[in-house]
Amino acid sequence: DEMELVDDEDGSDAETEDDEDVLEEGAEDERPKERLGRVTDAEIDEVVQGKKVEAIMNIFVSAVRELGYNIKEAVTPQSTRKFDDPALVKNALRKISRRLGESLPSLLNKSGSFKNTTSKIQIRRFLTALVSAVTEGSNDAVLVSTLLQSLSPFVPVLHILKGVTKTVLKTALHLCTSGNEVIRLAAYGVVRAIATRAAGTRTMYQSTSFKGVFLALVRTAHHYNIHNLPILGFLMSCVVDLYATDMEAAYQHTFVYTRQLAIYLRAALQQQSQANVRAVFNWQYLQALRTWGLVVSSFPSPAQLGPLIHPVVQVALGLMDLFASPRMFPMHLHVIEMLNHITSRANGVYIPVSSYILRILTSPSLTLENVKDGFSGGKKRTRDEGSVDKVDLQFTMRVKKAQFRTGDYKIMVWKETLYLLTEHLASHSVSIGFPEAFWPVASTLRKLKKDVKVPRIHSQLSTIVKHFESTAQAIQTKRNNVNFGPCDMMAVKSFEDNLKSEGNPLVHYHASLRRDRMSDFAAKQQSLQERVTLEGTLSDKDARNKKTRSSRQ
Fold it and tell me: What is the model's pTM?
């Protein structure tokens, strides 16, 4: 059934020609004031099943105002009604938003524009009220996500309503950084729909969407901790998914932002002033670099973003060269991890990170001569060392001098570095030239194994060397039986594919380390969640006790 906006005798298109003439807050309504009763459940069902959009919109706006949210339109008796039951307010919002989405085609003509200007005004009212509800009602995840999902049918007509697309997109991008996962997903669905709508209308806001998601990530990355880690991971996935919708636009945006990172780095390399150094040594720069590493390695084909892998890698290596101080090793570990992930996603592209890993392991400042079982001096922890804050490498870029001298810190750096080395070796252990390419690494590890006396680190070094030798020996044995040369690329690829399918000790060892690593992080998150829940329970209990005391007084 087609929906009607007003009766034929109530007005004409000429009377409402300009859809921008929406009444401002506080404007007077010319219609006589009516005394209307409270909105009931039966009335909501009747209006929703009816054909009067204006009546539906009055109840929708009344519901939004009933929740205490501001709407920039005239205050009228019809749009400020009270509800018979507070539970009806959100129920009305859900029913009406769904009904209007289903009935939108009846308000459009064959060309996709509105049949009359009055239709535009009412749909504008709906979208304005809905944006107010999702912006101010972010505490109710179920309601906000439902309202955001109801926006999908309206995306194709947003460009017809001047200024509405910008408002909706800005709101959705803001909600993409919400702490609630349900709201984030629904908000990104709106952003993606606006960026990918039909050809001819998408180009205006596609660039805004591409930029907006990345800039939302950068703003969120001002700090990096376990609380905003899920949000940053989500936003990185959003960037990858959104850029996959248009590879040509993705190339342009990725090139521009990578070039900007390189410009900041070049300025710091040429003149290490405080401003230049701060521009590149911060979480926002590092997370931006990690994002573009994820983007280019997700589409490594030469016809996609493959040509941009080299510039991203060069910026990453330059960042480690700029900050070579041992106190900056935590930042090096972040960059090395990112480069390892590029290798694993981009079909094993070789990145020379082993030299940076060995630089950490052979650093005189990280020697383990006086460290035993994680404590300096091989004895009990000293009073000064016990008072130093413990370092969490996952959320650290640089350590203090006192932290740097502790045995705990040195053990953590060694363990993390050896894990990244194992990951690096495992990624290339299916290459036909693996034994020769990584012989210097194995040789250095053998020397370190003789010098390191800490049991945990010595055992890990021994395991890596053992698996390296087993893997290299297996490849050499298999190579001795081939009848092709290194110039036969097809045969080499087939050889390496067989190595990959068969697996090897290094790959299996890395997989086991990765499982343990993920398990430890899941336990950390669970512990944090339990602590947050406990703190919330205690806060509620304190609030109740305070209320009880005040009532007694």
Answer: 0.83
